[in-house]
Specification:
Elements (H helix, E strand, L loop, with lengths): L2 H9 L9 E7 L1 H4 L1 H26 L8 H20 L2 H4 L7 H5 L6 E6 L14 H11 L4 E6 L3 H12 L7 E6 L8 H4 L6 H8 L4 E5 L15 E5 L13 H17 L4 E7 L5 H4 L8 H9 L2 H11 L7 H18 L10 H13 L3 E2 L1 E2 L6 E7 L9 H19 L2
Parallel strand pairs: 1-2, 1-3, 3-10, 4-5, 4-7, 5-6, 7-8, 7-10
Antiparallel strand pairs: 9-10
Helix pairs in contact: 1-17, 3-4, 3-14, 7-8, 8-10, 11-16, 16-17
């Protein structure tokens, strides 16, 4: 764990009055897919060693005459495949599935914790999960503690929470969503229905919320046109990294200051943080309990039939012993990297989220969370996409640290 991550977990011990906090953990269709995910992980683990051996053979054979650029290409892929081979080891898959995710995420016994199973799959494009909103509205109404924070195995529940809050009297017209995510989630919800890929466009379309920003996505693409008068900012992970693939805090704070200053000018006073765990530095910190399986993405990018044939040939001592075959192999890798945008996983250091909360409150005077105008209640924010298996409980640990940081800042600014 990096120094910044360790500091965040240490800081998570700061004083928070958990007797004033309600925590709802939503379980959705994501959990039903767990067995399928584990089968896929096992399948990928069986394939990985083959490609590691092929790639190491290429880099360790000077007679093949690869150029320096080709060598770097192969070395980059080797590093990433090695990370994922370790990431999805058998130790990770061996997990006690009887432990509810909500209990795994419980910060302290003082918090009021409820685990809610939604009626229908919220991520089903055809179903749309329309019967879930009344259930979420009911929970928002019955919570009797001043602060409400939510976790979920799906980002879709953020849309339900904000709609339920607005229907329950919370004023979203001077609020903004600050989302930390590896995806924009701005697929056009009008065309596809509500699902986790369209959750941000759904929030813009279905609530009075005037602005949102997504920090950390792989791409800035969006299939959604923001309604007139509403503001959308996208800051990609690549925007926040150096040329040497290191997170750049100066770039991060500069982008944040620009967004926060414009939100001030728009009359926004409250920020709802929505933290998707796949926006963190998954590979560097070995956070495995997210729905985003980068290994599956890499399989689609690299493990096509041509590469599998070359791998088989290499393992039998055939094919890649010729320079032309080696060049063909590396050319395939480079083609995939160019065509499908292979790049290091440029996630956000978890400590940067606390930094954003501090900047918003201390430098710009924003309130973290959305207050009810007539009740002593505030909906603080959410942390989503917690989907086991969780290697050594690492994802749960950082989630609890982020929950504590989030609630601590919200409580201090009441």
């Amino acid at each position: 764990m990096s120094d910044s991550e360790s500091r965040l977990e240490h800081r998570a011990e700061e004083r928070v009055d958990w007797s004033q906090v309600s925590h709802i953990h939503f379980r959705t269709a994501e959990q039903q897919l767990l067995d399928r995910r584990l089968d896929k992980i096992n399948e990928l683990r069986q394939i990985l060693p083959i490609y590691l051996e092929v790639l190491r053979y290429v880099t360790a054979t000077p007679e093949l005459g690869l150029t320096a650029t080709q060598q770097r290409t192969v070395q980059d892929v080797v590093k990433w495949l090695h990370v994922y081979d370790q990431l999805f080891s058998q130790e990770i898959i061996a997990r006690d599935l009887s432990q509810p995710e909500a209990e795994a995420l419980r910060v302290t016994a003082a918090v009021q914790l409820s685990e809610v199973k939604l009626n229908r799959p919220v991520d089903d494009l055809l179903e749309g999960g329309s019967s879930n909103l009344p259930l979420v509205e009911e929970w928002v109404q019955v919570v009797d503690r001043p602060l409400l924070v939510t976790t979920s195995d799906s980002h879709t529940t953020a849309a339900y929470m904000l709609q339920a809050a607005e229907n329950g009297g919370y004023d979203l017209s001077h609020s903004a969503v600050l989302s930390f995510d590896h995806h924009t989630d701005l697929v056009d919800s009008a065309a596809t229905g509500l699902h986790k890929g369209s959750v941000m466009s759904h929030i813009l379309d279905k609530t009075q919320l005037p602005a949102l920003a997504v920090v950390g996505p792989l791409h800035a693409t969006t299939g959604h046109k923001a309604p007139f008068g509403k503001s959308v900012d996208i800051v990609t992970g690549k925007d926040l990294y150096t040329a040497g693939h290191l997170p750049d805090k100066a770039k991060y704070t500069a982008y944040l200051r620009d967004i926060l200053a414009r939100w001030q000018e728009m009359g926004i006073t409250q920020i709802y943080p929505s933290i998707d765990l796949d926006g963190l530095r998954l590979t560097q910190q070995v956070y495995t309990a997210t729905d985003y399986n980068s290994l599956d993405l890499m399989k689609r990018e690299f493990f096509d039939e041509q590469l599998q044939d070359l791998a088989d040939q290499t393992l039998h001592g055939i094919g890649l012993q010729r320079q032309s075959a080696a060049s063909e192999f590396v050319a395939l890798l480079e083609m995939h990297m160019d065509a499908k945008g292979f790049s290091p996983y440029q996630g956000l250091p978890a400590s940067w989220i606390g930094l954003a909360l501090d900047m918003a409150t201390k430098e710009y005077g924003f309130t973290i969370g959305i207050k009810h105008p007539n009740k002593p209640s505030k909906i603080v924010g959410d942390i989503v996409e917690y989907t086991p298996p969780d290697h050594q409980g690492r994802t749960a640990k950082i989630t609890k640290a982020l929950l504590t940081r989030l609630v601590g800042v919200a409580q201090a600014g009441r």
